[in-house]
Amino acid sequence: xxxxxxxxxxxxxxxxxxxxxxxxxxxxxxxxxxxxxxxxxxxxxxxxxxxxxxxxxxxxxxxxxxxxxxxxxxxxxxxxxxxxxxxxxxxxxxxxxxxxxxxxxxxxxxxxxxxxxxxx
Length: 120
What we know:
Strand content: 15-25%
Low-confidence stretches: 1-7, 12-18, 113-120
Structural class: alpha+beta
Number of helices: 4
Number of strands: 6
Distance between the termini: 22 Å
Order of helices and strands: EEEHHEHHEE
């Protein structure tokens, strides 16, 4: 059975860490009325991690388990993707499997399609 490797990467948008004590976010996600509070919470959680932090979808589900399940996380990620806060790209790892890189940002205008081409 072939499994795809899926990694998330913290976006390089307006997130600024002050020696790890807090995160500063742009107003775009916080004031976007199209986003649920759950989707905004995922943005906050992800961007509160160190810059360049890599993790998997399962890590995200496990991190919020007990409060939300896989479906809730998947639904929030779908919402973020629909409005440009979440982008994915896929490429072959050269060993017969795909690797996905997924970026979450607090400002969709800061991620360009050129930056993360999505392979169909």
